[in-house]
Amino acid sequence: MARAAVPGRLGDRLRWRIAEVAGRRVESATAVTLTLEIPDWPGHLAGQHVDVRLTAEDGYSTQRSYSIASASNGRSLDLTVQRTSGGEVSPYLVDELVPGDQLELRGPVGGWFVWRQQQTEPVLLVAGGSGLVPLMCMIRTREAAGSRTPFRLLYAVRSPSDLLYGSELRQGAPGLDTTYLYSREALKDSARPPGRITPEDLARGGWPPDFEPTCYVCGPTAFVEKTAAYLVLLGHAPERVRTERFG
């Protein structure tokens, strides 16, 4: 029987656990998904993240936060990590970590940027690059629960080669509409030329404001701030626009 997908007590969620890498899947030239086995994992909500800590032999340690990619009803945990140029943690996770290795993590963390299965209003997901990861957790959780809540995804990425979860998104899920927005290099038959996200993109691929959707926007800070401002400009209520940013 799967664990209940709810966060545990605060003290339990904030303690460090040992996770073992059970699998490694390449998502793109710069990103991998790590499947982690955590015997006493308390469960998570769609959209939450964990803190990962690495400790060197000399005792030096550092930590970073990574969004959870797997559905909230799973027994294992998927983290999709994109290598950051000059980064201290992501190059190790992407290039060196292999099945059987261990690392420390704590969580789940977060209670605002989450989607709960009890929600019935339409959902608009807007992702910039690896900002897709927590939104993919929402998509997978919805599908696993058999929810009929209508989802629309606008996925902004530099080029087709940078797509995460490409084959899974192409297969689609009932009630999920996906629009790709390429900023630097588009497919040859793409009707939209390469460029940054615009209000027209959001109006065309999103929900009308009078549908009162909940909007989740995740990506680099500049992308998130601009997209959130566009949504409000289009008439979406600010309290229905939830954001998470990085960088």
Beta strand %:
25-35%
Mean pLDDT: 92
Give the second-level CATH assignment, the architecture of the largest domain: 3-Layer(aba) Sandwich
The main pleated sheet reads as: 6 strands, antiparallel
Number of helices: 6
Order of helices and strands: HEEEEEHEEHEHEHEHE
* Structural class designation: alpha/beta
Query: What percent of residues adopt helix (DSSP H or I)?
Result: 10-25%
CATH superfamily of the largest domain: Nucleotide-binding domain of ferredoxin-NADP reductase (FNR) module
Number of spatially distinct domains? 2
Fold blueprint:
Layout: H1 10-13, E1 17-28, E2 31-37, E3 49-55, E4 61-67, E5 77-82, H2 90-95, E6 102-109, E7 123-128, H3 132-145, E8 151-157, H4 166-171, E9 176-182, H5 199-205, E10 214-220, H6 221-233, E11 241-246
Parallel strand pairs: 7-8, 7-10, 8-9, 10-11
Antiparallel strand pairs: 1-2, 1-6, 2-5, 3-4, 3-6
Report what the structure shows.
By secondary structure, this protein is of the alpha/beta class. It folds into two domains: 100 residues, Elongation Factor Tu (Ef-tu), domain 3 (Beta Barrel); 124 residues, Rossmann fold. The chain has six helices and eleven strands. The strands form two sheets. It has a six-stranded antiparallel β-sheet with strand order 4-3-6-1-2-5. A five-stranded parallel β-sheet has the order 9-8-7-10-11, with helices on both faces. Strand 3 and strand 4 form a beta hairpin. The longest helix has 14 residues. The N terminus is likely disordered.
